[in-house]
Description:
By secondary structure, this protein is of the alpha+beta class. It contains one helix and ten strands, in the order H-E-E-E-E-E-E-E-E-E-E. The protein has one domain (2-125). The protein has one helix spanning 2-20; strands spanning 36-39, 48-53, 74-76, 79-83, 88-92, 95-97, 106-107, 110-114, 117-121, 124-125. Strand 4 (79-83) and strand 5 form a beta hairpin.
Amino acid sequence: MRRALIAAGAALILGAPAFAQDVTIEKKTTTTTTEIIKEVPETGSTVSTVIIAPRPPPALQVEIPPPPPGPAMVWTAGRWSWNPDTQTYGWVRGKYLEPPRVHAAWVPGHWTQRSGGWVWVDGRWN
């Protein structure tokens, strides 16, 4: 029995290079081009990336917020997000956020039309 196992192991070891020659590896590269405008502020080191959607977003979906997870949490409504890879809008569900300070008010984001298409302006705390 032991000789049979040793013989089988030797056959696998010696035959492995022959099996390896039959393996084919295929590499596929995909390139996506997206129109991106980088706005550079006059001071500081922050650079924001703005993606321009060629058409306006659909009408907002109606969302009923679930109960808040805490007394200070603020509901931020859902929104449409542009996917440059698929050239379509996708819905991003609303969520609760914790204000950065007492009495901070959430100013919702919005889509605005600019030359060349539509741009998302992020919501912010006021």
